Each structure stands twice: as C-alpha cells, then as structure tokens.
Amino acid sequence: MADHVLEHEVPVLAAPCRLDKYAADVLALFPRSQYDHRGVEVVADGKPAKPSLKLEGGERLTLSWNDLPEPSFEAEELDLDVLYEDDEVLVLNKARGMVVHPAHGNWTGTLAQGLLHRVQNLAENFEDDTELRPGIVHRLDKDTTGIIVTAKTPAALEFLAAQFRERTTEKTYVAVLKGVPKQSSGTIEGYLGRDPKNRQRFAAVGPTQGKPAVTGWTVLDTASHCALVKFRPHTGRTNQLRVHSLVLGFPILGDPIYARTDPRAPEAPLMLHAARLAVVLPSGVRHEFSAPLPRDFRDVVSVLGFPDPQPFGID
C-alpha cells in the first residue's frame, strides 16, 4: 500500500502540461527527479497514466506515491581495488558502476559503504558527517573508472580537499571520442551548468548560469574514425569532461547520457578512465598514482583497431 494517496481534479490549464511536471511543479508533491524513485502511480479518469500524459484540465486524478527510503549508512564488504594505503589515506581504482556515496536510487553498494567496512573507526571519525560521505575527497561518475583518493580522518580530508579546491592536483584521464578533432591538442575554457532543456544533464552555458571550467586535451592516436585522447581537467565540475567532449564536437564513446550508441562498438561502456593523479599526501610527500585501464576499455579499443593503449604517454 502506498504511503500517500491524493484525489485531485485538474483545473483548466493555460497550456498542456506533462503529468510528472504537474505533480512536481503545480501540486508540489516532490521534485520531478524523484518521480521514479517514489513508485508513483497515477490513474487519470479511471485509466493508468504514464508520466508523459499531457493534462489539459478537467482530468480526475488519483495519485499514489511512497516516501523515499531512509539512507543506509551501514558498512558493506565490497571488493575494493586498493592502489595505496597508509594511516591517513586510501587510494582506490574505482570500478565501473560503483556509486561514490549513497543517494537516491543508490542506497547500497557504494564506495562510502565499502570504506566503512574496510577502514577501522571511519564511522567514528566522521560521526558528524550528515551527507553520508565519510572520507570522500572528490568523486567520479558512476560509469567512470579510475583513481579516487579518500581520507581516513577529518584532518586528512581537509588537507586533500584543499588541493582540489585550489587546483594544485594534477589529474589525467583517458577517453575515446566518437570522431577526430581537427587539431591535435588544445584547451577548452568556458562555463558549465545545468542544461536548461534537461535538468539531468549539464551543458556549456554563460557566465551567469554556470561555473568556470577548463580542460586541456591531446589526441594520442586515431583509429576507425575515433580518437584516443588525454584530458587534463584544471577544474572539477560535474560531467566536465563529458560536456567538454561535446564542445570539441565529439562525445565520449559509450556515454549513456551525452551520446548515442555507436555501431562501431555498440556494447561500449563509458570510455572514460581516471588514469593518473598527482597529489600531496598529509605526510607532505607528493605522490603520483596510476590506475591501469579496465579490461572492458581495452577490449573496445582493440575492436576499434587501436594498439594496446596501456603504454601510451598518459603522464
């Protein structure tokens, strides 16, 4: 049985409105992004209705929905690929599909929960963390693989996070683009913000709508009309490299949000890997970490006709 049920008659509308938008913006029941997560069911004039139903006025609705589940903060034993560990820091090679911290739709199996299981006293050290991000210094998208550095103590977290804020870290990503840029290298500068046409995406926007974003890029090789590129992001905006590849004119192969399936590699995952990271650890020593390309990445570049990219100059 649903947690909430509402009977409602739609008044005459000035313009047709999608059902999910009406529930979120007019009835203000919950954010539109939560429509799927809340198990919403709607009967309109006696018939089940899809979120895309266009309301015009006069429809009789029965809406039912659930509360969001309580966030889980329980430790989980997960298979973590550890690249480096000391008393203050844990550096990992994040697997594809792993979400960094609990959020809507991803309450279990996250990197944060894996850290709670592996690192003794982590929960106690971050007991005041209300966002369920114990020791999380920075993040990678769910489908991006590669290096992520985490902290075991609040002091280490602040020490590391300051370097990301001040842009003193050096980050190197490897990606495959669906096309070949005319130039062999360059720098993309602009502003990134929510796509005004699709709030689940980000886009290049004006300075009043977004935040500064800068990415250096170099083509390493080409094959099958695709480009193997090295990205050097100087800022850390959400989806930055995925959007900046669009600015170049060629999305990242396998991107489920910003690209279409490519017949050259229809099963390709998101071909974006955080390959190297240079950062000063709380000990004061600067380390350069590297993460090998995942097998599915190497399989796709092999199908496309690239040589083994592992020895490529990605430093």
Commentary on this structure:
The radius of gyration is 22 Å and the shape is globular. By secondary structure, the protein is α+β, with helices and mostly antiparallel strands. Strands 7, 8, 9, 10, 11, 12, 13, 14, 15 and 16 form a ten-stranded mixed sheet that branches. The chain has a four-stranded antiparallel sheet with strand order 1-6-3-4, with no helix packed on it. Strands 2-5 form a two-stranded antiparallel sheet. The longest helix is centred in the middle third of the chain and has 12 residues, at 154-165. 16% of the residues lie in helices and 32% in strands. The protein has three domains: 4-65, RNA-binding S4 domain (Structural Genomics Hypothetical 15.5 Kd Protein In mrcA-pckA Intergenic Region, Chain A, Roll), CATH 3.10.290; 82-165, 2-Layer Sandwich (Pseudouridine synthase); 170-304, 2-Layer Sandwich (Pseudouridine synthase).
Low-confidence stretches: none
Percent of sequence in beta strands:
25-35%
CATH class category label of the largest domain? Alpha Beta
* Gross geometry: globular
**CATH superfamily of the largest domain, please?**
Pseudouridine synthase
Structural class assignment:
alpha+beta
**Cα-based radius of gyration, to the nearest Å:** 22 Å
- How many H/I helices? 6
What is the typical, i.e. mean, pLDDT? 91
Number of strand segments = 16
Number of self-contained structural domains? 3
- Tell me the distance between the termini: 56 Å
